[in-house]
Structure formats: C-alpha cells, structure tokens
Amino acid sequence: MEEPAWADWIRERDHPKTAGSRAEALGDITVLDLSSKNFAGCYCSSMLAEFGAEVLRVEPPEGDFIRACTPYGILHEGEGLNYLSEGRNKFHITLNLGKPEAREILKGLAAQADVLIETYRPGVMDDWGVGYEELRKINPRLIFASITAYGQFGPLSLSRMPDYDNIVQARSAAQYDTGEIMPEGKSYDECPWAIPTKAGPWIGWVEAGTFMAVGILAALHWREMTGEGQALDVACVEAYASIEDWAAVWYQGAGVINERFGSLNTAGWLYCFAPTKDGAVFLGGLRLEMWQAFADMVGKWDEWGAASWKDLSLFTEKEEQLKWASLVFAETSKYTNEELVGMSVEYARKGRLAPITPVVAPVCSPEEAIHDANWLDRGIFAPVKDPVYGELIVAQAQYKMTETPIRTKWVCRPVGYDNEHIYLKYMGFGPLRLKELKEAGIL
Amino acid sequence: MAEGTWKDYREKKHSKPLPLQGIRVLEVCTLVLGPSGTGFLSRMGAEVIKCEMPPLGDTLRSLVPFGYWFREQCTSFIRPNPNKYWLGLDLHKAEGQEVFRELAAKADIIEENQRPGVMERWNVGYRQIKEINPDIIYISKTGFGQWGQYARENRPSNDGAAQAMSGYAWMSSFPGQRPIKSRLYICDSYGALIGEVAVLAALHYRERTGKGQFIELSQCESIMRTMSWVWPYQHVTGRPAMPAGNRDVSICPADTFRCSDDMFLALAAPNPQEFRGLCIAMERPELADDPRFADHLTRLQEENATEILRIVADWVRTKTPEEIEGLAEKHGFAASRLYTIKDVVEDRHFRERGFVTEVDDPLLGEFLDYEFPVMMSKSPPRVSWSIRPVGFDNEYVMTHRLGKSEDDIKQLYECGALGKWADVLGRRPPSGWDGKAGLIMARD
C-alpha cells in the first residue's frame, strides 16, 4: 500500500535520526537533582534532560543508593541497570549534604539554578537550612520541586516510612483491583497468582516523576509571566492514584468497591485479553460497530445475531461479559496471534463494516517488542554509544518533534564524574580547591 | 516541609492564580489518551475547548462500570474532562472546518487523537493549520505514531493494545501464568501525561523563539519508555526479561505479602538502615549482618532474595496489616496494606491535603474528584467544574471567542456544523435540569 503523503512529509521532519542537529527546548534551563534513593526524582530530571536542560545530578560521595537497585543484583560496567537508563544527559557531581560547608555550596548552586528537585523526607531540607523558604531568599525565581511518598503537608507527611514503588502501587488502589479472578472453589494456597497484582515496571515512581515534570514546566511558564518561582509538592501515592478513571466515582455514587476482573474490563466491552493458539491477543471494540466487526471477522455474524445488536450496554453487565468472553475465547483459540492480527488488518480493507475493524494486538514479551521492526524503524530502541558504558539500548525517542526533538547524548555517568567541570563552571573551584574539598569529605 | 508555604493550601487554592491561565487549547479527542492530556492542562487553568462530533460526541461517554451511570452521566467521563468548554462541531462539514480554523488561528495548542491522516482529510491537519497559525503547537496522539508499518496499515489502537504490544502486561504478571492487563487505562493515562511534557517544553521553546511545532506521540512508545531496566537487561545479558509477580526484582525485600487475616500488604526495606529496622521488627536482628543479606546487591541475587522473601512472608503471615504498618513506622521501613478504592476516597490524609476534593457542580451536584497531583504553592491547579452535554457551550464559544452574531450561529446550526446532544444517556443533561444551570450564555 502506498504511504499517504502526510506520513512521508512528517517522517522526513521528525525522524529521531535527525534529532542531534536540532534545537533543544530547555537548553536555557539549569536543574539541580538531589534525588535520594528515589527513582521518581531521577525520572523527572530525565524528562527535562532529554529536552536539553542542564541537569546537575547531586549525589553523596558514595553515590546514591538507587544505583544499587538493579534486577537480580546485576551490574553493567559497575552500574545498576535502572540507573543506567535514567542517568541520561545528566552531569554527575558529589556533595556531602551532611556537612554545613556542603550546604553552603548547594546554596551557591541553587542561586544559579532554575529548578531544584529533591526527594528527602519532609523537613530534612529545612533542618539543613536549604529548604524552600531559605533558598527562595537566595533565588526568588527558583522552582523547588519535592517528590515524596505522602507529600509536604497533611497527617502522613511526618511518617518515617520511605518511598518505594511497590508501596505506591499498593496504596493507590490500582493493585487491589488488578489481577486474576480466583477460580471457583480454589484458595490462595492453590492459586497464589490469583491475587491483587502490581505492575512490573516502576510505574508508581514514573507517574510521580512525570507529573512533577509537567508541574515544573507549568511553573516555568508561570515564572515567565510573573518572574516568580514557587514550591511544588508531589506525593507519589496521589500521583498514581489520580489516573484512575471511574472506580472512585462508582464508589461514591453506588458504594461499590471495585474488585479484580482478570483481563476483562469492568467499564467496557469489547476490551480484554483473549487466549490464542500460541499466546494471547488484546481485543478492543468499544464502539458497537467494532464489536460487530469482530463477530463478523470470526464468522459469527449470523450465529451471534450481530445485526440485531442495538448498543453496547447489553454487554457490559458482569454476567453478560463473562458469558460473551467464553464465546469469544473459544473463537480466538482457533487462531494464532499472527493470524488474528492479519484478519483484523484484512477486515479493515474488505470486511462488511470496513474500514471499521476491531483492535487486535498481540500480547508480546519485551523480547518480542525489542525486535519488532516497527519500533526499530521508529528509533525507540536505537542503541546509544556511550563514552563510558559502551553501546547500550535504553528506550528513547518516545516523542517525535519537528523543532526540538528529544535525544539521548549519553546514558549515564559514574559517581562524581563531572565534579571538575561543573564545580569550575558554577563555583569557580579549580583543581586545588577541589582537592581540599574532597579531602575534607565535603564533595 | 516549609510549613508557612503550605499552610492553608487547600482552603486558599481558589483565591490564587492558575499557572496556565491564558493558554488556549483546542481538543479533537475521544476516549482517554486524548482527553486526559488536555484535562491536565485545564486543571492548570488553560482554556480547553473540547470539540465533539454532534450529537453523540466522545465514545467514552458510553463506558460505565457494569452499567452504572453517575447521576445519569458517564462514570468514566468525569476524571479526564474537568474545566472544559463543550463545542458540538461536525468536522466532516466544510462550515465546521471553517469554525475550527477560526478557533485554531487564536489557539496556542491543538491536541487530537484521530487516526493518522484524518485531521488532514478534514482540512485541519498540522500542515493546513500552520498556514494560518505558524506558532501553533500541535500534538497528535495515537497507538503507533504517524508513520511506520503499523500506522501505514491504519491499525486502530486502545490502551489495552499498548499494554499488550509494549511488553508491559507481560512484565506485570506471575511467572508461568497468563499476562494480566492492568485494570487502569495505564497506557492512555501515561501517554496523555508524558505528551504534556512535550507540549509544555514546546511552549517554553515558543516563548523563547516564537516557533511552534508538531509533536507525534505513540502510546506504545510512551509506555516502553517507563520500563527502564528491561531494555538494557536484554541487550547486556542476551536473556529475555521475565515477569516476577508482585516481587520487585530490583529492590529487596520488596513484595506483596499475605497477612494473618488474609489481607494483603506491600513491604519494602532495601537500604541498610531500613533492612536492619525490618530485621529488628522481625526479632531476627542477626539477619541484618548475615553475609547473604547484609549488602543489597548480594541480597538481590536470586537465591538470597528467595530466602529473605520467604522469611519475611512467614513473619507477615502471623501479623495483621495494622501491626506491620505500626512496626514499619517505628523501625523506619515501608509497609502499606493494599488500599481499596474506598480507602483512597475516604483517606483522611488525602482529604486534608485536598487531593480528594469536593466539587460543587451546577449540573452534576456535589461530588468528589481527584485534584491534579502537583500541588503548586503560588498557582494551585484545581477542578472548578465538571462534564457537560455535547455542544453545551456552543453559544458561549461562538459569541465570546469568535464574535459570531445570533444569525451566524443560527446558520451554523442549520447547516449542521454546530449541534447539540442527542437524547441519549450520557449525552443529555440530567433529567432534573432546569434548562439553565451551568449554561454561560443563552439561558432563556
């Protein structure tokens, strides 16, 4: 099939291959990232560093604990794999904030920064004399961004509990109602997988970090208008809880507590994972015509009476969903993933309801995804040649843009790798001064 | 914690400015990926005009949990769509396209999530709009982007397709079991959110240079971006990444455990102090110095991780969630029972912070919504009003924004460019509506 002119036109202008030579949206912004054993903060500063912000990643002399949070304890060139993915484009410096002299240096950096990101427990920065209310006196334009488990105020803000992704997922209600339904007559001991199930990726932290990036950019706009900085507060649990779309409304209206519904969807049909000969596919048909197209595609137009369906509300009740799911699964089990995907693409061309067609998407492992020609073509897994860590694949280029595309210049840096350059540039510390500060345990 | 800064934040948020006041946004979006993104902007004070195809509008208006409608409105429609202006505009019609172009000439941002090429067919694609507004920031959000094989095949997409194709669902399951779909529209919501990072970065660039641009977002690529270690792991080790149920394979111990009352609890205690705190709480202080567990990297190794998780599981099985939470607070590690939606809505902390907030809406009545989860000390985002029927604000937008006369508007209705709601649940006003409440113009 011929590619539409629009696709050619835009591909030429926003392909990530051309990103390196373009302007950077945040090239004028300096960010201090003080994140401490918290991936949300690291991810937040990555969002800004991808757009060219100069991010100074401040770590204690021994490095941040988050570097040691890596799957199965695996290191690559001495670096944890999560941190390796989120050190991108950042300059790495050390500063021992336990020492008063170090805090004076931090004030000097904060005086020259646009944004400060920190994840210490509420009150720690204040106790050190480098909280928002101190730093705003030095730099009234500073945007002071705090990311913590429960936020800067409210009864739980004084909790001693640290912030971890699995706790965020647990506390937000999204884990409670995700997972397999317990098969009838079975127990947790027999089916230890039929329980509330969290997401594998650090999505709780990532949501919090991304929300904060959005907040910081909005605060930058507001600063353009008014000249004033401000304090921002993200509680990770709220950030992840906030993306829930209907259960809270359902509860307040009807008193219903949403429960697990496997890979079906309580709030819509057709919308589920369905088993196939060689795995599973996602099926989506949230408009009546798409659901009818599915019935037609698997040859059940007449038998299921698809022509007589008037709207989808019939199918969304729980018992109806379970009944129809078993009918649908019986059909999908006759085909492979590839066959079903092909049937859907074909139906869009020649089906009775074409171009309407159901969404059919294979359930892929990351192993399949990383080799998918479509993604390789789009540059999301283009290897980065890092001067320290060699060639590495991290996900990148998640948006394509015509003027200021994001890019990955390097993936990571060892602890304190940029002390010389950054302290010279911002604080005027030459080699002699730097040596003194290191020996005094300040850097 | 800057006590002075946050004092009375909740009480005073409505008497402070909004961070995106004055930014004008046009939305041609349906379901969640599109509308959630502009919903973040409207919570921060941007003026969002939501264009829907009359008379049925957004597909999301039909999607309700097990047939439950909230005060005759769509339960799922509320969260992504606060503070918007509602325009019933038929973009298939030349007159409708002309109205859109007039609005676009005055807009800062356009957001759409039609399939690739559709906006161009309607004469309101990026290439056409930039001719009349070269500074426009224009974002197109789809499953697979604007180009490449899947876009060329014109594949439709949903959140669930992105969960499936990215490997996200695969990684969010128990080993050897079927992959589980998150019950959140996670790839929609996340794609919407990260899209706004690009939009606002582009806005910053425009403020410096005067230049607008086009942004292309794929919800699949967005969610892949969140999967951190998975990609370098496969590249470096040559092994496929595998799911691990509720266990966090990068943090140890971090897992979900079953308590004595069969309730579930998440617990994490990886760093040295936290781990020691946990060992003391378990009355097994010697474990903190055990060579298998003392160092985090060693503890993360499969055999050691399995062993310490077994020890923790056995201990948690003898306690209630409340007991463990108390010990966690005392000894400085992290633990939380699994919150249900009731727990979130009724949580005192969320209420006192104003995250769970009361909205007094002229159409919907009083209800609870979630506030934008970035609290901003000087320019607090907030929800002021809720969803409206299709085309509810037509007169306001036409008069106030475009200066149309009553005759102009009448003509637009007659040719079908403008339209209002169908007499269908989820599209029309609640049955007790007095014909006036919530309307800005033309209340008679």
Written account of the structure:
The complex is a heterodimer of chains A (443) and B (444). Chain A is of the alpha/beta class. Chain A folds into two domains: 5-243 and 375-439, Crotonobetainyl-coa:carnitine coa-transferase, domain 1 (Rossmann fold, 3-Layer(aba) Sandwich), CATH 3.40.50; 271-357, no CATH class. Chain A has helices spanning 5-14, 39-49, 81-86, 100-111, 124-127, 132-138, 165-171, 203-226, 236-241, 247-254, 288-297, 313-316, 318-332, 337-350, 366-370, 373-378, 419-427, 431-439; strands spanning 30-33, 54-59, 75-76, 79-80, 91-94, 115-118, 143-148, 230-235, 271-276, 279-284, 359-362, 384-386, 390-392, 399-401. In chain A, strand 3 (75-76) and strand 4 (79-80) form a beta hairpin. The longest helix of chain A has 24 residues, at 203-226. Chain A is elongated, with a radius of gyration of 26 Å. Chain A starts with a helix and ends with a helix. Chain B has two domains: 3-225 and 357-414, Crotonobetainyl-coa:carnitine coa-transferase, domain 1 (Rossmann fold); 254-343, 2-Layer Sandwich (formyl-coa transferase, domain 3), CATH 3.30.1540. Chain B is globular and about 85 Å long. By secondary structure, chain B is α/β, with parallel strands linked by helices. Chain B has helices at residues 3-6, 9-12, 33-43, 94-105, 118-121, 126-132, 149-152, 159-165, 186-209, 219-225, 230-237, 272-281, 296-299, 302-316, 321-331, 341-346, 348-353, 394-401, 406-414, and strands at 24-28, 47-52, 69-70, 73-74, 84-88, 109-112, 137-142, 213-218, 254-258, 264-268, 334-337, 356-361, 365-370, 375-376. In chain B, the strands form four sheets. A six-stranded parallel beta sheet of chain B has the order 5-2-1-6-7-8. In chain B, strands 9-10-11 form a three-stranded antiparallel beta sheet, covered by helices on one side. In chain B, strands 3-4 form a two-stranded antiparallel ribbon. The chains are: A alpha/beta (443), B alpha/beta (444). Chains A and B meet through helix 1, strand 3, helix 3, helix 7 and helix 8 of A and helix 1, helix 7, helix 8, helix 9 and strand 8 of B. Strand 14 of chain A pairs antiparallel with strand 8 of chain B, so a sheet runs across the interface.
